[in-house]
């Protein structure tokens, strides 16, 4: 009986990737392996799938098969021994370890303990004034960090002694656990994957090989940073494990509230209270900026809430862009604690303004006209 095409057996296209082949064989192995399926055709279908996978997962055999078909790999795959005996292929747990082992962090038959691990990234919250954030500055910060213990050289063992090979895993760092027909690898509970144990721990680091210290770093804060910006210091985080690279340090910027200004993107905002006489007659006011003072001209008849823009007195964004502006919002302040004479003068002033009708208070008259029309429609 002629053999079926290997690609057809696995149910993949001829340009299938290695990952596609492995995925297809996993599916068939789970379905037809005799350890899981006692059906009459299960063993034959599993053998067929195993043979197809053995050929197509090998680059040289696959190339020969693609050129010459089954004739190009005759006598090659035989993945169950020359006679095709299933017993020679191993149990389902062996197949699982070979093809499925990557699910559990490596091939089940392979060795090797824990791999080198990159150190943890650290975060440092830096509080800045608005002036410091806008202008930039150099700051020194102190951060806790893990360094190799100088007494044991980072081994964790008492000076004069050395770590010993773990008796549980034999220095591999992993142990095989049998769960039914599954055989999987787990990190060795004795050495936690390091492959060695410390019988006499170093007294200074308590067997950890690392101790915590503080180090001082100089950080250049660029001009224009704002709350939420982060400055990365590569390699200044926690040290890596088993020779892995250190992590990074991220300096998180938090800008303190300012008594005068608030910031929105590249613009600064401030509220400027003025008396109603200045608002009515106009005048000039001296207003602050982050780099000095400017004169703000108030035109006659200015209403509360009016915005005045002072160009170029904002913030230069840290990521580039035009210099922002200072936006001044005018708020007219109502006089308080008036004397009887001042109250009398205001009453006289109010009477003279009322005599002018809507010419002096157009908004008030417009609003009153609208209220009157509304009441008429409501029949009030």
From TrEMBL:
Binding annotation for Zn(2+) 2: 166, 169, 188, 191
The J domain, residue ranges: 5-69
Cellular component, GO annotation: cytoplasm
Keyword check for Disulfide bond: no
Annotated GO biological process: DNA replication; protein refolding; response to heat
Entries under Pfam families matching the protein: DnaJ, DnaJ_C, DnaJ_CXXCXGXG
UniProt cross-references to CDD domains, sorted A to Z: DnaJ, DnaJ_C, DnaJ_zf
Domain CR-type residues, every copy: 136-214
The UniProt record lists the keyword Chaperone: yes
GO MF annotations in UniProt: ATP binding; heat shock protein binding; unfolded protein binding; zinc ion binding
Keywords: Chaperone, Cytoplasm, DNA replication, Metal-binding, Repeat, Stress response, Zinc, Zinc-finger
Free-text remark on how the cofactor is bound: Binds 2 Zn(2+) ions per monomer.
UniProt-annotated location(s): Cytoplasm
Needed co-factor(s): Zn(2+)
Residues that coordinate or bind Zn(2+) 1: 149, 152, 202, 205
Alphabetized InterPro entries for the sequence: DnaJ (IPR012724), DnaJ_C (IPR002939), DnaJ_domain (IPR001623), DnaJ_domain_CS (IPR018253), HSP40/DnaJ_pept-bd (IPR008971), HSP_DnaJ_Cys-rich_dom (IPR001305), HSP_DnaJ_Cys-rich_dom_sf (IPR036410), J_dom_sf (IPR036869)
First and last residues of every CXXCXGXG motif repeat: 149-156, 166-173, 188-195, 202-209
Zinc-finger ranges (CR-type): 136-214
Protein family: Belongs to the DnaJ family.
Subunit structure: Homodimer.
Domain comment, as recorded: The J domain is necessary and sufficient to stimulate DnaK ATPase activity. Zinc center 1 plays an important role in the autonomous, DnaK-independent chaperone activity of DnaJ. Zinc center 2 is essential for interaction with DnaK and for DnaJ activity.
PANTHER family (alphabetical): CHAPERONE PROTEIN DNAJ, DNAJ HOMOLOG 1, MITOCHONDRIAL-RELATED
Function: Participates actively in the response to hyperosmotic and heat shock by preventing the aggregation of stress-denatured proteins and by disaggregating proteins, also in an autonomous, DnaK-independent fashion. Unfolded proteins bind initially to DnaJ; upon interaction with the DnaJ-bound protein, DnaK hydrolyzes its bound ATP, resulting in the formation of a stable complex. GrpE releases ADP from DnaK; ATP binding to DnaK triggers the release of the substrate protein, thus completing the reaction cycle.
Name by which UniProt lists this protein: Chaperone protein DnaJ
């Amino acid at each position: 009986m002629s053999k079926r095409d290997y690609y057809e057996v696995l149910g993949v296209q001829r340009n299938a990737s290695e990952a596609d082949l492995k995925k297809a064989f996993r599916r068939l192995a789970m379905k037809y392996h005799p350890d899981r399926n006692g059906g009459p055709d299960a063993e034959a279908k599993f053998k067929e799938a195993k043979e197809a996978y053995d050929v197509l997962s090998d680059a040289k055999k696959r190339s020969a098969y693609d050129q010459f078909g089954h004739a190009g790999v005759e006598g090659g795959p035989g993945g169950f021994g020359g006679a095709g005996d299933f017993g020679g292929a191993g149990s389902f747990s062996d197949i699982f370890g070979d093809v499925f082992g990557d699910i559990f962090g490596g091939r089940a038959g392979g060795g090797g303990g824990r791999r080198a691990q990159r150190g943890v990234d650290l975060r440092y919250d830096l509080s800045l004034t608005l002036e410091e954030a806008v202008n930039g500055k150099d700051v020194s910060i102190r951060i806790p960090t893990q360094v190799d213990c100088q007494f044991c050289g980072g081994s964790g063992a008492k000076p004069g002694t050395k770590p010993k090979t773990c008796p549980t895993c034999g220095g591999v760092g992993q142990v095989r656990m049998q769960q039914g027909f599954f055989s999987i690898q787990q990190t060795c509970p004795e050495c936690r994957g390091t492959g060695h144990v410390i019988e006499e721990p170093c007294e200074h680091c308590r067997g950890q090989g690392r101790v915590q210290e503080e180090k001082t770093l100089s950080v250049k804060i660029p001009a224009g940073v704002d709350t939420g910006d982060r400055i990365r210091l590569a390699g200044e985080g926690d040290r890596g494990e088993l020779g892995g690279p250190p992590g990074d340090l991220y300096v998180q910027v938090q800008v303190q509230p300012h008594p005068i200004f608030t910031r929105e993107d590249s613009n600064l905002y401030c509220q400027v209270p003025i008396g109603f006489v200045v608002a009515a007659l106009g005048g000039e006011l001296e207003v602050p900026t982050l780099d000095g003072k400017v004169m703000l001209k108030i035109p006659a008849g200015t209403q509360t809430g009016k915005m005045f823009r002072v160009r170029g007195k904002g913030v230069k964004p840290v990521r580039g862009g035009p210099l922002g502006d200072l936006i001044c919002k005018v708020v007219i302040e109502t006089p308080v604690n008036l004397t009887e004479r001042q109250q009398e003068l205001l009453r006289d002033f109010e009477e003279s303004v009322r005599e002018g009708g809507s010419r002096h208070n157009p908004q008030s008259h417009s609003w009153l006209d609208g209220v009157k029309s509304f009441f008429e429609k409501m029949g009030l």
